[in-house]
Automatic annotation (TrEMBL):
Keyword Hydrolase belongs to the record: yes
Keywords, comma-separated and alphabetical: Hydrolase
Domain Non-reducing end beta-L-arabinofuranosidase-like GH127 catalytic positions: 9-437
Entry-linked SUPFAM superfamilies: Six-hairpin glycosidases
Pfam entry (one): Glyco_hydro127M
Residue ranges occupied by any Non-reducing end beta-L-arabinofuranosidase-like GH127 middle domain in the UniProt entry: 449-543
Originating species: Bifidobacterium pseudocatenulatum
Record-annotated Non-reducing end beta-L-arabinofuranosidase-like GH127 C-terminal domain positions: 545-657
Gene Ontology molecular function terms on file: hydrolase activity
InterPro entries associated with the record: 6-hairpin_glycosidase_sf (IPR008928), Beta-AFase-like (IPR049174), Beta-AFase-like_GH127_C (IPR049049), Beta-AFase-like_GH127_cat (IPR012878), Beta-AFase-like_GH127_middle (IPR049046)
UniProt-recorded name of the protein: Glycoside hydrolase family 127 protein
Amino acid sequence: MTNQAQALNVNITSRFWTRYLNMTVENALPYQWRALNDEVPVDVPEGAAWGENGSQFSHSLRNLRIAAGREEGVFSGQPFQDTDVSKWLEAASYALRRKNAGLNVDELEAHVNEAIELFEGAQDEDGYLDTKFELDLPAEKRFKGLRWSHELYTMGHFIEAAVAHYEVTGSKRALDIAERVANCIGHNFGDGEGQVHGPDGHPEIELALARLYEATGERRWLDLAAWFIRVRGTDPEFFDEQDAAGGPQFYTDLHMPLKYFVQDEPILDKQHAEGHAVRLLYLAAAVSKVGRLLNDQKMLDTAERLWTNIVKHRMYITGAVGSCQVGESFSFDDDLPNDLVYGETCASVAMLFYGKSLMETKPRGSVADVMEKELFNGVLSGVQLDGTRYFYVNPLEADPAASKGNPTKAHILTRRAGWFDCACCPANLGRLITSLDQYLYTVSNDGKTVYAHQFVANKTEFEDGFTIEQTQAGDEYPWSGDITFHVSNPNGLDKKVAVRIPQWSKDYTLEVNGEAVELPVVDGFVTVDASAADTEIHLVLDMSVRRVRASLRVRADIGKLAVARGPIVFCMEQVDNEGPLWLDGMSADANVSESYEPDLLDGVEVLKVKGSRLESPTDDQYRAVDAPLTEREETLTMIPYYAWCNRAEGQMQVWVRETK
């Protein structure tokens, strides 16, 4: 187990991530506030995000103003519409710390306070807080239609926002609202007579209550989180019983199996990652977190088992998870179609939550490697470089003609959307990016070893004057692998620093205080004694271009290659290459030239691959084979996957046909 009680003061100095942090504070969060305030319309092709709103605007803040008595009107939106504001509030609360980096956050802070006031005004006397039910339904219907009502999901996201606000500001105003919410839930749910004996159809409250416990020290919140985990799936008839008893109905045209809700069997018995990807991942992250806090071995084993199944059989090379459009779900082992993938942005964000929790139980380089893969690929692909347009779905192969002409691919967008009817992803991205500092280090339970597992330049102050400053040479990470850790230990504490050696780095060099050293790699880390007043650790990673093959179990990628460099997965875009892209190929030993282009896509590494392109002597749809197809030499241009769709709309592909 690890010790997460040590307060960290993290100042991110990375050029790459400072740009994303500042973009989120200055562009994305103000833009999202305008969208929540009905100043930005829903802008997404039909089929890209389902829902029952049918409105051109969000109405999220308007719902809260009506519930708080500030406006007249009726509820509009998804049952979980409040969560768009809650996630924004969490992201914006973390963003307030950018004031220390010289950013003006006055307007953002005013909006944060306004949002808290609205939630405070909307909350019922008993602590209940969900504007869909407060405005649309009688009180006796509350918690009676949990299959689709999202009530605990909605309240859970507010609790998480309140915890973030408290951690950043020290103010208990939002936290007090959250504790009243938790009291309401604790009063209504449990094994007692008259209480609700089952879970919400969308996990989230489990994570929220665990975080509330960490913020307040109130053991009852941790116990309630554990109850929700243990009760899930124990009564497969629970939702049907609520429906039969006259509970409120939502999404009546959607008939999802219990597996979708992670309600088909007890979660602690589940062997494979199944069902709606975000639901499963939120729950798995909570199982890991609560398992660590309670030292519950069955929970810890479940969290490990599901993670292993995902990363070995159900995750794309970009970190995307959820291969099936129907139910935004996992399908079966090694089913990873590139052009039908769902790969919801929220699912990649949830993988970071999950990985962080696993690292807090047992730090391992393999888990940190996946977190890095998600950060630089699966997460960042979800947002346009200026922070004002978003992907809900993250394909590995896209074609505008296919998305327009084939209904089974209508969910694959070839341009990011300005806003969604179901707008869960934009603020989820925001709350991850603005809390990035929480994902860089893990501290051992005895406080003696600091695991530095993400290569994000920063200066971090730990307890008792112990400080680590990570600097990066040249174009900096992820383009350069030249990394130095400057460790200051003025009080001579018994300390060690463990530095991750990524699995993708075939070779590396390591120096400690200017001397080359060879240290054993244990669980993906090299550990350096840092008891001296000053210690310098210099790591140079192998940033050479890699050609990657998928397992032969992955049918979709047979006969294809992907290209990666450092943590970055690359792709081809039609704006750089002649279409159709599927005619292009490359060999496993193809010559690759690389260059950093600072003025392209806010600064990216560009690869030029010596490849080839298929040619046909006729344009016939079918013809008898009389000779092998010919290929002509072609230079293939590849850019980082996360940066695609920031110029012109067109085809994109990650996997390229392999030639001899």
